[in-house]
Design goal:
The complex is a heterodimer of chains A (111) and B (112).
Chain A (H helix, E strand, L loop, with lengths): L3 E4 L2 E4 L5 E7 L5 E7 L5 E9 L2 E4 L6 E3 L9 E3 L8 E8 L6 E2 L3 E5 L1
Parallel strand pairs in A: 2-11
Antiparallel strand pairs in A: 1-3, 3-8, 4-5, 4-9, 5-6, 7-8, 9-10, 9-11
Chain B lengths: L3 E4 L2 E5 L4 E7 L4 E9 L5 E8 L4 E4 L2 E6 L4 E6 L8 E9 L4 E4 L3 E6 L1
Parallel strand pairs in B: 2-11
Antiparallel strand pairs in B: 1-3, 3-8, 4-5, 4-9, 6-7, 7-8, 9-10, 9-11
Classes of the chains: A mainly beta (111), B mainly beta (112).
């Protein structure tokens, strides 16, 4: 059963804490992406990776970090430097010029 | 910088109506345009992808058109059903990074 999985579904962050969101895909896609979605808005690109061990900043990378050590995995860390982290986070993957396939999302809330 | 606008932001129609959702983008140098569906609290599902060289794509009751020169796309939904209720997002792929830029979506409600 191929697809993209994200965990956890809900995540709570305390002030000053770093938290990591998981994204795994078994579609054998080279490219992976992280987006942030705020209520009533479209998606904004945080980071993307077109190949293992390489990644690039998107439009809103400040306060976030990523790694791409394996083709299947692209975890996102929300650092304490991100002052407004409450949002819905979506991970996607693709082969390049074709459509992107999205995971179910992680909702991050601040305690 | 690419910008994508979707009109209207929300739309409510009775079941059975045909409807049109609009999308416009500022930079016509695109690779493709995609329409996605998002149910509340869920991820995105791809509906249609139109390559820059194409004018339209069809899938069942859905038809999407692309006029690259004017920076416009429409998503036509025929014979709407309550199950079509969702947010519809338009996105264009452009730039050397082949980045997707999204509109803010149209929230569609189909009333039984």
């Amino acid at each position: 059963d191929g697809g993209i999985t994200q965990s956890p579904k809900y995540l709570f962050r305390k002030e000053g804490q770093n938290v990591t969101l998981s994204c795994e895909q078994n579609l054998n896609h080279d490219a992976m992406y992280w987006y942030r979605q705020d209520p009533g808005q479209g998606l904004r690109l945080i980071y993307y990776s077109q190949i293992v061990n390489d990644f690039q900043k998107g439009d809103i990378a400040e306060g976030y970090s990523v790694s791409r050590e394996k083709k299947e995995s692209f975890p996102l860390t929300v650092t304490s430097a991100q002052k407004n982290p409450t949002a819905f986070y979506l991970c996607a993957s693709s082969t390049g010029l074709e459509t992107q396939y999205f995971g179910p999302g992680t909702r991050l809330l601040v305690l | 910088k690419q910008e994508v606008t979707q009109i209207p932001a929300a739309l409510s129609v009775p079941e059975g109506e045909n409807l049109v959702l609009n999308c416009s983008f500022t930079d016509s140098a695109i690779y493709n345009l995609q329409w996605f569906r998002q149910d509340p609290g869920k991820g995105l599902t791809s509906l249609l992808l139109i390559q820059s060289s194409q004018r339209e794509q069809t899938s069942g009751r859905l038809n999407a058109s692309l006029d690259k020169s004017s920076g416009r796309s429409t998503l036509y939904i025929a014979a709407s059903q309550p199950g079509d209720s969702a947010t519809y997002l338009c996105a264009v792929m452009s730039g050397s990074a082949r980045q997707l830029t999204f509109g803010s979506g149209t929230q569609l409600t189909v009333l039984p």
